[in-house]
Amino acid sequence: MAELCACNTGGGNTGRPSCFPVFDVTKQAILVEYYKSDGSINGIDLSLLTGGVLNQTFLNERIKDVNPKLRWYPTPELKNIVDERAEDIVESFEDTSSVFIQEGARSFEGLIIKGDPILLGNLKSWRCLGMGVFFIDKAGNLIGKQTRAGYLDPIRVQDESFSASLIKGTDTTKQKASVKFIVSQLESDANLMMIEATKVTANLLGVGGLVDVVSETPTNVTTTGFDVQLDTTFGGVTSPISADGMAIGDFRVYNQTTSSVITVTSVTESTVTGGLYTFVIPAQTSSDVLIVSNPITGFLAKSYDLAQFTVTIP
Amino acid sequence: MMDLNLDNKMLKVGNTTFNTESLKGWTKDEFKKAYKGKISIDIDEAWKEVYKYTRVKK
Q1: Cβ separation of B21 and A263 shorter than 8 Å?
Q2: φ/ψ (deg, to 5) at A51
Q3: In this structure, is residue B56 part of a structural domain?
Q4: Which residues of A are less than 8 Å from B47 in CB distance?
């Protein structure tokens, strides 16, 4: 970002308070889509923090937002952080002097221990998005930028710079995923700001993202209900890790044929087979197609993000 | 065994969560037919939990 020359006001003051906080090493990154659908930055409206405190309710609403475009996507803990700017770009002259042209690009890199192909695939999906990032440091500070009053905004990531790769384990090392990106040249380090850890009561450090959940083909479908096996995308191909602990409030059932929301009577989780759920619904008409999905309001309380599936009434 | 959530519309009985609004008008026989073998507690005990939500206001 170009720094404007303060020709009329003189240089900036260089004094500092006797005690002030500084950023610590990054432990996690929170990936976000940089812009909301209305074109505004997907940042934190500081007026929504009660008493300036980032509490658990606020964090849950961001991490578990039913709207994936607004949601925060925290990475697992990152190791071996590299977060530094390349050398400044200067113009050199024959007398061996030089003048500053612009700062070098800031690149970021971190390792996710036990990074796996599922996580890798999800991370790779960010590359084509206009994305930003908040950082959580070792002290529990939430770091972003402040370029507009009343907001802490994500730091813009240079388009198409995000990459993730799998580093397989060796005889002496663990499998890892590597995450790399370049901070946008539109950003200035001078704008970096944070919500201090002392103003964070939520369990921010170590916060986890949502887990994808997919369905198998519904079975025992009748006009008044169906069974469905719900699994996470993790685990082996023949031994997926089941999505346990879901309840009626974690689902929305919509009759696509009649364009109406169905009020589900009950959802029963099998005590024998993990992730097997029995839905009881009011009687539907034969051939109606139902769409089962996440709820569309509130937040995803169980940290599961269900890929919608359909049920055709026999 | 029973757990009402904040909006007072969900009832958890054993391994089953009900929308209490949907229970109105259910009879004991209908309930037993639908949930016997599925709900993780004794079906008669479950009915005791559910019964008060089945009554329709006149």
Answers
A1: yes
A2: 65, 25
A3: no
A4: none
- Evaluate whether A86 touches A163 at the Cβ level (below 8 Å): no
Set out the domains of chain A in order of their start, with CATH numbers. Answer: 26-89+103-199 (no CATH), 211-312 (2.60.40.1220)
A129 touches chain B (CB under 8 A): no
Interface predicted TM-score of the whole assembly (ipTM), two decimals: 0.83
Q: pLDDT for A167-206, tens place per residue? A: 999 999 999 999 999 999 999 999 999 999 999 999 999 9
Q: What pTM value is reported for the model?
A: 0.88
Q: Which residue of B has its CA nearest to A244?
A: B15
Domain span at B47: 2-51
Q: Chain B: nearest CA to A212, how far in angstroms?
A: 22
Number of structural domains, chain B? 1
Please list every residue in chain A whose beta carbon sits closer than 8 Å to the beta carbon of residue B35. Answer: 266, 268, 280
